[in-house]
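Two entries, shown back to back:
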Amino acid sequence: MPAPILLLTAQAEIVRDRIAPRLPEERFLCVTGPDDVEAALASEPEIAFLIRGRGLPGEAYDRAARLPSLRWLHSAGSGYEYLPRWDPEKLVVTNGVGILAAFLADTAMGAILSLNRGFPVYAERQRMRRWEGRPFRALAGQRLLVVGAGAIGQVLAERARAFGMTTIGLSREGAPRAPFDEMHPLGALDDLLGEADVVSCHLRLTPQTTDMFDARRFARMKPGALFLNSARGRHVDEAALLAALASGHLGGAWLDVFRTEPLSAESPLWDAPNLMITPHASDMVEDWVERFADFFAGNVERWRAGGPMLNVVRP
């Protein structure tokens, strides 16, 4: 009988119920809260499935990743910066990049439309019962700068081009990549910020990308430009963003991620002008857990058959 599969997430029972019929030979250890961690780690699992979130202490994920018995760890979301550095010769790590990309891109496109049309302003005027219109610029012809031209950025570029926007992508090497009209290396960010009408961040968090959007870079952006971040909160100096919005230099912003989550009720971000806030929910399609589970089940089948794994990542 194979070693058990550790499901380390508050949604563990949903994942188990989804994939157990497809994987009848497997045993599952569901860890949904801190009280279950010790016994599960002592069972020496070979495979671990993780969804990082509230309900489990951060150290639980760290300890699971360091288990001597573990041979494969799957981080269900696209991010894996919370994992300790691993030896790829001893541990295979996979992630869920691309699974929910289309849904997040749809939300980002919705934010562009909403900010461009002034919906946050109209919402405030509705509360005040003010009948007052405002002009907006056509999206066609505007330039969208996608900082991080991966799975999400590519879908967003497709959506934006359908509205007639010009799409510029930034990646590490800057190699041509459909569906972008232009591609540049990430080092060209400063030169391109002043040309963009909309800047959308979709980068993985690394020491190099932490605080990438600070006061200096907001100042380089075109007056009236829009800024979006649905990647990681630590990409953004939130005080600098507040200042850029308060001064009117930025025309608006949307944040789905924050340096501290959940966002404190006392945070000044709640009252910032022309800032749309969503609670880290931009890709929360109603069956997101089942989608993560289905992808994982397919990789379990590949693992047991000795076949190539999907979405293998390197430390």
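entry 2 starts here
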Amino acid sequence: MPEGATKNTEDRLQQLREALEGGKLQHLRRMLHSLHPAEIALLLESLPQAERGIVWDIVDADDHGEILLHLNDQARAQLIEGMDAAALIAAAEGLEMDDLADLIADLPEAVTQRLLYSMDADNRERLQTVLSYPSDTAGGLMNTDPVTVRPDVTVDVVLRYLRLRGELPDQTDALFVVDRYQKYLGTLPVSDLLIYDADRVVGEIMDTEIRPLDVGLSDREVTQRFENLDLMSAPVVDANGVLVGRITIDDVVDLIRDEAEHNLMTLAGLDEEEDIFAPVFASARRRALWLGVQLVTAFIAARVIGLFQAPLEKVVALAVLMPIVPSMGGVAGTQTLTVMIRAMALGQIDITNAFYMLRKEIGVALFNGLLWAVIMAAIAIVWFHSVDIGIAIAVAMAVNLVMAALAGVTIPLALRRIGVDPALAGSVILTTVTDVVGFAVFLGLGGLILLGQV
């Protein structure tokens, strides 16, 4: 988050706390009313659960639906649990279909049934259409409210039709041209309606180069399409080419933010939807698993060190320098792993070009390995007056950096192959590899060179 935005949030949080502590509920209500639902959601997430409930009761009920959409899963579940069925149904009213599809998954079954029953047939069908697709596909992201026109009508007819409608759906930058069977033909930017003569036919001026998104397209591919083509909105079609909806830039921005949070949190084995003020036991339980995994890997590294107990007891220099080699390998490996995960997220890496990535990263590792091996060897020789120790740490560092590069490229590919998120498990496995290889090579060489034993 930009520094200015962070400062604004901190200032608002301070004002909110002062109003709560001073009992100035009217002032607090006016303050919340002036904020966007996304800003209110951020403030709610920044409050302990007891205070969060107080503020939620003060928030304008008309904003409840939008605010719930912007909250993380845990905070949303907490607030939903405290709302009755009537309040939840009122909060869901007026939401866009794609947003309603996101929210309805968190509602109690009884509330969902009442909500569906309260909707008219058209809206119920539109919602069921969105819900029929996985949430991480174009079909699950789309809105079912595209404005369509025929290719054989004139600009004047389109303008009169829009005036008759009276309003357009939010984020409408283009109309979609379809045939009599609702098959997508092209896009008509709203701006074109202002610059073309009224007697021009839509089929002559529509843009046919914007390819529609298939309903089964993954959310990651949707993001890439918007980024590469600088789209504000895009049509979504089914397997028969029939227009079924549209995706707008605001949904894509949410996707980008969620992906960034996911990558950041999973690198530490955490859930990006975790509530920072969740109960202690709930947070501890979620984090315990990955701490346990890390402990197992630490025992593996400790076992490797134990194999070289004799050299360590006789040569203090080995113990002093021992942490450096795995540490350097860990940093180098993490750099490669981060580049790989980013490239995979952008769809830039697959089995066809992975070898070239591997060759490049090994080249980088060789360069840095030799550079820092020479520097570290010189330091070790000066420090401990031993060329043998300098040779041992230089060779170990070079080998470990190359192994780190190899692991940094292959681990995420292997994890994705077996269906595991590389951002979640990659760093744990990488740390194990660089620790084990670093300790084994350095202590093994040290034992051979200095003592003639391992």
